[in-house]
Amino acid sequence: MRFLLHHVRGPISFEHLKTVIVRDEDGDILEIKPCSTYTEACQVLGLVEDDSHWYRQWKRQLCLSPAQLRNLFAFLIAVCGLNKPITLWENHKEDMTEDFLHQTRRNNPTENIEYCDALFDNTLLILEDKILSITGNKLALYGLPEPVHDQPESTSKDVLRETSYNVQALRAYMAANGPRHSRSATSLYSHHWNDRK
Questions:
Q1: Contacts of range 113-117, beta carbons closer than 8 Å, 24 or more positions apart
Q2: Which residues of 28-52 are buried (b: 16+ CB within 10 A; e: fewer)?
């Protein structure tokens, strides 16, 4: 917000600070863009960089172990001021959770285990511990999902069997076999998947 106070002329409110007026070389107004955050307004004005340089750095580090990636992710959030950590989380949560998946597959060799919310929750718990130790803040402050703290055994065989499935394979199966099902089964399927989106 300090950057905006130095660069926005005559602000009349905090919301006015988040409204960016884009002008051409002659000073004529080209666009009035309302921004949702002060950081976004600073990015539109070119006062701060976006996260693209951090994303490039992350891609260079993908050869690291999942534990090292979790450390890097926590460092980027807590120390480097990553603007939208949720984007990096959504794109690379599987990379940070890969060791949990392999461990769970070793412990349950008869099950076909895929990435699932229970495994991602383990990663979020570790990330939250790391970020809490550095900043004293929880993940929600950074726009990340909060882990479930009171799960009895989040990687138990029953939980994994019921929550670990390949969504793309199920959708492909339903696209190919959907017309063969009764109207009520198709309706139930459509209702279920529309609720999940």
A1: 113/160, 113/164, 114/164, 114/165, 114/166, 115/164, 116/160, 116/163, 116/164, 116/165, 117/163
A2: eeeeeeebeebbbbbbbbeeeeebe
Report which DSSP code applies to 140.
G
| Residues 6 or more apart whose Cβ sits within 8 Å of residue 118 | 151, 154, 155, 159, 160, 163, 164
Residue 40 half-sphere exposure toward CB, CA atoms < 13 A: 10
pLDDT in tens, 75-103: 999 888 788 899 999 999 999 999 999 99
Question: For the segment 132-182, what is each residue's pLDDT rounded down to a tens digit?
Answer: 989 999 999 999 999 987 655 545 555 566 666 677 777 787 778 766 666
3-class SS at 98? helix
For 10-26, how does the pLDDT look when each residue is reduced to its tens digit (9 = 90+)? 777 778 778 777 778 88
| Alpha carbons 86 and 7: distance in angstroms, whole number | 28
Residue 101's nearest CA partner among 168, 149, 155 is: 155
Q: Is 77 exposed, middle or buried (0-12, 13-18, 19+ CB in 10 A)?
A: buried
71 versus 109: which is more confidently predicted?
A: 71
Cβ–Cβ < 8 Å for 123, 93:
yes
Contact 20, 9 (CB under 8 A): no
